[in-house]
Amino acid sequence: MEWANDGKSRGGVLAHLERLEIQVNRSRKNSEDLQRAQAVEGTLRTKIHKLRCLRDELRAEAKQRQARVKASAANVEPDQTLEISEQEVAERRRENVKAILRAYRFTGLSGKLTSRGVCVCISTAFEGNLLDSYFVDLVIQKPLRIHHHSIPVFIPLEEISAKYLQTNIQHFLFCLCEYLNAYAGRKYQADRLQSDFAAFLAGPLRRNSLCNLLSFTYKVEPRGQSVPFCARLLYKDLTTTLPTDVTVTYEGTDALSPSLEEQRASHENLFFSKPLHQVFTSFARKGEKLDMSLVS
Amino acid sequence: MDETLAEFIKRTIMKIPITEMMSILKAWDFLSEKQLQTVNFRQRKESLVQDLVLLCEERRASIHDAALLDIIYTQFHRHQKVWDVFQMSKEPGEDIDLFDMEQFKSSFVKILQRALKNVTVSFRDAEENAIWIRIAWGTQYRKPNQYKPVYVVYYSQTPYAFTSSCPLKSNMPLLGQALTVASNHHKIVKMDLRSRYLDSLKAIVFKQYNRTFETHNSTVPLQDRTLELDIHMDSRIIHENRIEKERVQRVTQETFGDYPQPRLEFAQYKLETKFRSDLNGDILAERKEPLRCLIKFSSPHLLEALKALAPAGIADAPLSPLLTCIPNKGMNYFKIRDK
């Protein structure tokens, strides 16, 4: 590159010729580049042209099809296409209604028409838990009668139907609902006590068919040395899930200390006011709190 | 353990089939695991029973333990007894029944023992708040006869009690009284219902035999059933009286339902009626006194047999209501007189 700086002074004619050669090459290259660019531009232009043509074709076809559809829709069988969509709509609506009818169970009182009357379904629940369902199949005749049912034998169905079935069917059903839901609630509490809080019980849970008499011996702390108490819960009102009579006693020979007496009395109140399993949950929580305080 | 007790235990264990021996002994829960492990259950039954009786002696079995084993054996073989059904009733307007099992038991025993000093009463709690009671009767001078006990099955807070047929019928009124008073009832009446199948009797009186209910969740429509007749038949067979067959099917289905029938072995009808005849001048028709006769239907499964009568072409449909009312009325003994 030293030669280039010297310019015209060095080399004389040869250098000049070289320079001219370089110039020519450069210009040739430039023109080649230009040509190439022009060629590319050309191909791109043709491509654009082709795509534009294709777009126009497709647009034209789309317009034609739309026109055809419109024409045929306004043509010979307009009803069939409408019918098909109507049928679909009707099917969907029917499925929807069926689903709603099935879901009616969750309201607690539902029914289905039968060939001879209606089959009523009473779905019991307690504290948001869905429990057993019971059925009463009614024959709509004069007099109204029960064809068959799945009400347990210890629920006073004959009494309730003697009072209300013929005169006020609504009251009959609501009364039956009341009894069944209360029974289901009491049974739920007794089952929960037996299964979840067995550790607190110092003996078997005594119960009966209606779950309206519960008798058990329990300790506030399952592993601790707390005093065992005997509880006897009576539910004289068959339409409630809380006891009407509660007695908590201490099965020992010594008299209770004042603090234990206080505990006994407070337990009695608890059993009156809260469902059975909730009372034991609170015992369990108190126990946890004690453990925590021991640790810290 | 005295000789009579040992003999009683021996005979009770002898009744148990070898295949059930382990499960019954486990349910009895009297002999310990250790003791049972020492026994060879593959030996001849007589030697096995002897070994078991020795173990019972080791553990000082009492009459109550033996009675409990007897109850468990009977629970496993309830079909060997014939069961009667009693219905109790309360005075109208009585208080809510607060049934306490322990109170019931002590009250029941007290009433029996007050009347009869020599009586063995044993209890075993069962599922669904039921209780099995075993009573061995004695007399004022004789000890209770352990080989002829009566069993009572009672579901708390229901009006029904099931008793095994008692050979010593004179004690039944006392038993009835004890049951009634202990369960807070007022009266007791024997129903005209009897069978070997305790579970079927329970299904009949508790009205639990028909458990099919129409809901929006059930799917099988009734029409499908009538097509069943034709679908399985060869297409080359033409049913000439198809309409009549379908009518019979429909009527049978309406009367008996789709559920399995409760199991009874017989139905008995005692007729005391005047003879009815189409022929005039029949000697029997002229009788002033009513004719007495007894008609008994027997079957391994009576109600299923009755249900099959009309579809099989043996009887006309609908069947006589005297036959079809059996589960509904809870009776299989009928007395029919002229009105």
From TrEMBL, chain A:
One Gene Ontology term, aspect cellular component: nucleus
Keyword Transport set for record: no
Coiled-coil intervals: 17-68
Keywords, in A-Z order: Centromere, Chromosome, Coiled coil, Nucleus
CDD domains for the chain: DRWD-C_CENP-O (cd23836), DRWD-N_CENP-O (cd23835)
Keyword Methyltransferase applies: no
Main location, first listed in the record: nucleus
Location relative to the cell: Chromosome, Centromere; Nucleus
Family membership: Belongs to the CENP-O/MCM21 family.
Name by which UniProt lists this protein: Centromere protein O
Gene (UniProt): LOC111154045
From TrEMBL, chain B:
Pfam families, alphabetized: CENP-N (PF05238)
Keywords assigned: Centromere, Chromosome, Nucleus
Top-level taxon in the UniProt lineage: Eukaryota
GO term, biological process aspect, one: CENP-A containing chromatin assembly
Gene Ontology cellular component list: chromosome, centromeric region; nucleoplasm
Keyword Transport: no
Main localization, broad class: nucleus
Subcellular compartments: Chromosome, Centromere; Nucleus
Family: Belongs to the CENP-N/CHL4 family.
Name of this protein: Centromere protein N
Organism: Enhydra lutris kenyoni (northern sea otter)
Taxonomic lineage: Eukaryota, Metazoa, Chordata, Craniata, Vertebrata
